[in-house]
Amino acid sequence: MAAKERDKTGKKGPVHVMAYGVHVFTALGAALGFLALESAISGHIVACFGWLAVALFVDAADGPMARRLNVIETASRYDGAVLDLVVDFITYVFVPAAILLRPEIMPQPYGLIMGLIITIGSALYFADTHMKTHDWWFLGFPAVWNVVVFYIVVFLPPAWLALVIVTALTAMMFLPVVFVHPVRVKRWRPMTMAVLAIWSLAAVWSVLLAGGIYFLGLGFLRDLPEKE
User: Fold this and answer.
1) What are 84-133's pLDDT values in tens digits?
2) d(Cα 51, Cα 206) in Å, to the nearest integer?
3) Whether 75 contacts 17, CB under 8 Å
4) Is there a contact between 54 and 32 (Cβ–Cβ < 8 Å)?
5) pLDDT tens, position by position, 181-216
6) 11 and 74 in contact (C-beta within 8 Å)?
7) pLDDT tens, 36-49?
8) Which of 46, 73, 103, 224 has its CA 20 to 30 A from that of 24?
9) d(Cα 142, Cα 227) in Å, to the nearest integer?
């Protein structure tokens, strides 16, 4: 059966094409996550967070686009909610957990242990049918591990403290506490989005500054004797 026959509405034209384009735009986040993972594996942590930042923009933009074009009806072959969860797991969970495997970020086995805690807990959280409240607040810590790992990279806390933080936040995914969804929650949305924009700019500046300090510092450390 042709794809156009499987669509519930049978609609054609620009809106139909743009609706499926939104799904492609959402799927782009998976590719950005892969690029971020490649950067993490290569040790290019600043570039890794750069790709994750672009993926975050895609995640923030695709929802309003999907609702405006009513993709549930106009592009029904693909489930946008499932696609979004797949992409979010890559960019919010899997890649940040992989960053913790870098020895300059977290000594082992601490990084590995934290990665296992993050991926197992988040897999259960993403499958939770009560993940969001009726007014679109997150119920439980919303598994934004890209943010948590970002601060671990910037501040480099002791391994034991990082493990405590990761364990506590994982537990909070299953506790009756709420966190705002900055795009979907209508209450205080303008202020929330403004603060999010300011925080994003500050985060970009922080990671660039941290990267600059690292590379500058290597020049001063060059003449130190290497360990035998």
Assistant:
1) 899 999 999 999 999 999 999 999 899 999 999 999 999 999 998 887 76
2) 15
3) no
4) yes
5) 555 445 544 555 555 555 555 555 555 555 555 555
6) yes
7) 999 999 999 989 99
8) 46
9) 42
Smallest CA-to-CA distance from 169 within 118, 104, 105, 95 is with 118
User: Dihedral through CA 123, CA 39, CA 99, CA 29, nearest 10?
Assistant: -30
Nearest to 49 by CA among 90, 99, 112, 104: 99
- Whether 136 and 185 have beta carbons less than 8 Å apart is answered as yes
- Contact predicate 76/40, CB 8 Å: no
pLDDT at 13 over 80: no
Give the separation between CA 142 and CA 163, rounded to whole angstroms.
Answer: 18
Q: Is the pLDDT of residue 69 over 90?
A: no
